[in-house]
Design goal:
The chain is built from 1 helix and 6 strands, in the order βββαβββ. By secondary structure, the protein is α+β, with helices and mostly antiparallel strands. Strands 3-2-1-4 form a 4-stranded mixed β-sheet. It has a two-stranded antiparallel ribbon with strand order 5-6. A hairpin with a 4-residue loop joins strand 5 and strand 6. The longest helix is centred in the middle third of the chain and has 12 residues, at about 35-50. The protein is globular.
Length: about 80
């Protein structure tokens, strides 16, 4: 199985292609959070674009406060 692992941080967005649990390729882009949401989304797209046609899924990690009872992100 080939999937994308995506780590969205305040400073950098890191992505990797994971094949059978092993990271085989990596990339990193600045988040540019100070430039607004649209810019950060563009950075996410740049981070995954090389892997997207090779993967069958994506897992995303992002810091935040989660309400696990309600299944919602309260703050990120």
């Amino acid at each position: 199985m080939q999937v994308i692992g995506l780590d969205i941080g305040g400073t950098n967005i890191k992505a990797g292609l994971v094949i059978n649990g092993v990271v085989t390729e990596r990339t990193k882009f600045p988040t540019k959070a100070d430039s607004g949401l649209a810019t950060s989304i563009t950075q996410i797209k740049l981070a995954i674009q090389h892997f997207i046609c090779k993967a069958s899924g994506i897992g995303i990690g992002i810091a935040g406060i989660i309400d696990s009872q309600k299944g919602i992100v309260k703050f990120s």
